[in-house]
Amino acid sequence: MPFERSLEIEQRLDAALRLIRTGGYSTPMLAEELGVSIPTISRIVAALRERGHDIHAERTNAGWRYILRGSSERPPKGRSGQSIQASH
Length: 88
What we know:
Blueprint: H1 2-22, H2 27-34, H3 38-50, E1 54-60, E2 63-69
Antiparallel strand pairs: 1-2
Helix pairs in contact: 1-3, 2-3
């Protein structure tokens, strides 16, 4: 069902973002942790960047890893590019 699939994708994006925030995951590590393929991780990272998350790849002595730069508190962006604000 479309709704269930959409919810699954959102949950996967959230899980990937939580892992990226730790600063210790490469593409293969994220793929293994989330149980998806390496190309899927590339699509997830692209989707998160499109939503306004400042994700970069950084080279370390151990290899490459993703890091999240800037404030992780800024509101994510919707498909239209406008910030999504929670109502209080």
